[in-house]
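S1.2 Input.
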Amino acid sequence: MNIVASKLPRVDIPLHYRQLGTVDIGRLLPRVIALTEEDWLKGTRGRRNAFPGLEQTKTINLRFVENLDDPLTSYSLPDFEDWKALLCPICDQAIVSYGYKDPQLSKVMLTQLPAGTHIKPHTDARAGNLYTHKIHVPLVTHRDVLFYSRGVPFHIPLGEAWEVNNVDMHSVWNQSRIDRVHLIFEIYDAALIRA
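S1.3 Output.
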């Protein structure tokens, strides 16, 4: 039996997406806009999520997991402390509807999808994805940026938090002239961990 399966219950993953509501990105946005190309390249060079389909993205990982099958193995990267005060209030606002008693962030990242590029159709096929909610918050976007879940297209508006189904086939197309930037995080309720 998978160790995670014995400790955490599976989460209710939406068919395509779940709208969680508007969050306040006002304090975070200036810092994200101030990121330089060198900041993005530095983050991407050291990234831990260089999976097929994501080659055109640039990522700054702030929290990640040692074992992709186990969200309980999460850890903070050095830059997380510098970003924490700006990110955590957004994450807290986004998850209100879950009613978590002890929310824990297993992964936190800023991801840029350059103008005119795409994320190829793929699945996040590791077991750990069954035990966390994957939430996207657009920080820089355009109506011509479309997320596809099982072939169904949708646009996530600026400053809204949406849970996406990442275990089924999904992709993203940025057909705009701007670089799309999302805060992406995965979360679980540690109060539900079984001994």
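S1.4 Remarks. The domain at 3-192 is CATH 2.60.120.330 (Jelly Rolls).
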